């Protein structure tokens, strides 16, 4: 009955897919990115209930004023900016150390899967390297897409695709 257990994640995705459109956008996102003061106050009321949120709203306005001169950069602009090279180097070192400390078990499992698929032993390290490169590519691509479209649309679309795939998988297993 493992396919029934697998379908539970599809059920959760379906529930999230159904309810996500009814949740408001993040108040800081509405105010700072969209410039929608009225929408920000409405989102605060929806999320936190009725009340006086002028202190929080004023804090967000101050933060918006403080960051008004700064430009929101995409991933490529951040990589090209020399003022953030030190921070990027530290982040890269941290990510590399996480890969080397054993937290990334996917490399071990991919090798076993490729052996089970009867790939030649000499090709398996290169295919595993390809998997890692595709992960890096997808992370870079996804962060660029998030910058362009926002998190809410991508979450909604991702849950929809995940729910559809799991429904298709469940139907195919039953047939």
Automatic annotation (TrEMBL):
The keyword Heme does not apply. It is found in: Membrane. Keywords: Membrane, Transmembrane, Transmembrane helix. It is a multi-pass membrane protein. It comes from the Eukaryota. The chain crosses the membrane at residues 6-24, 90-111, 123-146, 153-174. This is GTR9 protein. It comes from Eudromia elegans. The gene is Slc2a9_1.
